[in-house]
Amino acid sequence: MRRSRCRPSPGRITTRSFRICLVWAAESPTGRPSSRTTAMDKPQIVDTLKRLIAEDLDLNVRYEQIPDGASFLEDGLALDSISMAEFINHLERRFPIRILDEDLESDTFRSLDSVASLVLMRLPARTAEAAQ
Q: What residues does the Carrier domain cover (predicted)?
């Protein structure tokens, strides 16, 4: 059994050990970044977002009830500011991306489709492909 690097002695949490824990938690068990988020296409991202909303947010909505192009304000989702903050938190934990303040001020978060486009644009594999 592999011993966790993220279990410092009680009372001895340092900035360095905390940073290591955050990096370790974001990696797969092999020590490499997970590839499950880097090779996704838009329909897979929309599906993941629907599952995230249905399973991780307390909205009383089932996966099957969420249309692919669902609006966050209509279509039964009706996300309030707290639900939207939780959604963004789950989104950043699920995908290796950061949501910027500019994203919140634009129309990026009006629908699942627009959020999926943002995720697709920011995924590391897409960035590397665009650079080549």
A: 43-123
